[in-house]
Structure formats: C-alpha cells, structure tokens
Amino acid sequence: MTGRENIYMNGTIMGMRRWEITRKLDEIVEFAGVAKYLDTPTKRYSSGMTVRLASPSPPI
C-alpha cells in the first residue's frame, strides 16, 4: 500500500467521502511531510514517517 492509498483508506475509516479526501489531499500530505514519498509503499517508510501519516505499522 502506498502513502496515497493509505491516506484514502484512513480517510474512509474516519468517515470521509472520497471527494473530501481528494479535496484535502494536498493539505494532508503537507502536514505529514511525505510529498516526496507519496507513491512509495508504506513498508519502506521510516517509523517517523509512518507515525506522521498515521498508518498502521508495516508487517514484519
């Protein structure tokens, strides 16, 4: 799962509609500071990046 996919998944879990997530995507990416790595699989993220994105820990 990429960072972008993770944002959509977490937004959906939080009850946001897809258009809402799309509208706020730039703001979310800016806040998390992961713009350069947005399409990189989250399992390659550092622990700090994972926390900022609020994604589940990658499987070991």
TrEMBL record:
Keywords: ATP-binding, Nucleotide-binding. InterPro entries: Bact_Polysacc_Export_ATP-bd. It comes from the Bacteria. The lineage of its organism: Bacteria, Pseudomonadati, Bacteroidota, Bacteroidia, Marinilabiliales. This is Polysaccharide ABC transporter, ATP-binding protein. PANTHER family: TEICHOIC ACIDS EXPORT ATP-BINDING PROTEIN TAGH. One of its GO terms (molecular function) is ATP binding.
